[in-house]
Design a protein that fits this description.
Elements (H helix, E strand, L loop, with lengths): L1 H20 L56 E6 L9 E6 L6 E2 L8 E6 L5 E9 L2 E8 L5 E3 L6 E7 L5 E7 L7 E6 L6 E7 L1 E5 L5 E6 L6 E6 L6 E2 L11 E2 L5 E6 L6 E6 L6 E2 L8 E5 L5 E6 L11 E6 L6 E2 L7 E7 L1
Antiparallel strand pairs: 1-2, 1-24, 2-3, 4-5, 5-6, 6-7, 8-9, 9-10, 10-11, 12-13, 13-14, 14-15, 16-17, 17-18, 18-19, 20-21, 21-22, 22-23
């Protein structure tokens, strides 16, 4: 009897083991349903990303997957961007559009000069941008949106771009280089254009302010491979915060200071990445295949705008302005032109 009992137990154990092996998950075919999932950069799903040196001590761990607070929240504000209406970089212009896709208009009027890297003021009443003046000289300008009046803020100090007004409205950070050594530095000046100085130790480009105005985030190759760094305006507390392959440049900080978005990848294969403010938990957020770049948070922190080629893949004039929720869902195209629209920045 004991022998028969053990034979039956063995048979039942084998049967259960076979059935357990049959339970496998079926991957979803819905792309949007998988956007919020973490995409590891290298290795297996269990391989953690190396944590870089951080300037921040977060009191509460931030979840890996970011979710929008409500699907009923609709995009508000205005988005400024570079519009290549003549299909030639030397004649780039600055354009603006409402976040719902209405109200598109061109802001700059000089067809003979290149204008690029626009950024809205914190109050949404003006836009700063860079424009060509002479060889190796790009100046920073500020335009009042209501009147169209333009003020030149810099005066022949070099090749300047990517200006951004500080959250308190008093200062402008920007990238400086010259025609002699092409060294990229992060500089700062009063909003009036006075008291210009470099930020010590800040070698890089595409600067952006932290929401509290205490730090500047920028891209740099000072440590070899291009990564993101943060630094105080006085040059103290320099930290590398990212560990991504082939970071390109322009990034942004969420209004609550919790997250950073950037873009990374090979040519025509770039994606938007989101990470915690200390650089941890980096993962792809954009729907793949769009060659997505240059994301910017909405003022309420619930949306992102960025450049992508979803509707015109591999077309050099096919980049358009898109928006999506911060969990990667609800992708929407705002522009639909036969020329490139890029470098978007979202303001109130």
């Amino acid at each position: 009897m004991n022998k028969r009992f053990y034979i039956w137990c063995g048979f039942l154990f084998t049967l259960l083991a076979c059935n357990m092996n049959g339970f496998t998950s079926t991957p979803t075919t819905d792309l949007l349903a998988t956007l919020a999932a973490s995409t590891p950069l290298i290795g297996s799903p269990a391989s953690p990303i190396e944590s870089p040196t951080s300037a921040f001590n977060l009191s509460t761990p931030i979840p890996l997957t970011v979710t929008a607070s409500s699907s009923t929240i609709q995009p508000k504000g205005q988005i400024v961007f570079t519009c290549q209406i003549f299909k030639v970089q030397a004649s780039n212009q600055i354009c603006i559009i409402n976040a719902d896709g209405t109200g598109f208009r061109r802001l700059t009027k000089d067809d003979t000069k290149q204008h690029y890297y626009p950024s809205p003021a914190p109050d949404g009443k003006s836009v700063v941008y860079a424009a060509f003046r002479d060889e190796n000289i790009f100046e920073i300008y500020e335009m009042q949106l209501a009147s169209g009046n333009v003020v030149q803020l810099s005066d022949q100090i070099g090749n300047l771009n990517a200006p951004e007004i500080s959250p308190n409205g008093k200062s402008i950070v920007f990238k400086h280089s010259n025609g002699f050594n092409n060294k990229n530095l992060i500089w700062i000046m009063d909003r009036s254009g006075e008291n210009i100085a470099n930020i010590p130790r800040a070698t890089g480009w595409d600067p952006t302010w932290s929401p509290d105005g205490k730090y500047v985030l920028f891209a740099s190759d000072m440590d070899g491979v291009v990564q993101l760094f943060t630094i105080r305006a006085n040059g103290k507390e320099l930290h590398k915060i990212s560990n991504l392959p082939a970071i390109r440049g322009r990034s942004d900080w969420s209004p609550d200071g919790k997250y950073i978005v950037t873009y990374s990848g090979e040519t025509w294969k770039r994606e938007i990445y989101i990470m915690n403010a200390d650089g941890t938990n980096a993962h792809i957020l954009s729907p793949t295949g769009g060659n997505s770049q240059g994301a910017s948070f909405s003022p309420d922190g619930q949306w992102l705008t960025f450049t992508s080629y979803y509707d015109h893949p591999a077309d050099e004039n096919g980049c358009e302005i898109y928006i999506m929720r911060i969990d990667g869902t609800d992708l929407r195209r705002l522009t639909n032109n036969d020329y490139c629209d890029y470098q978007p920045r979202w303001g109130p």
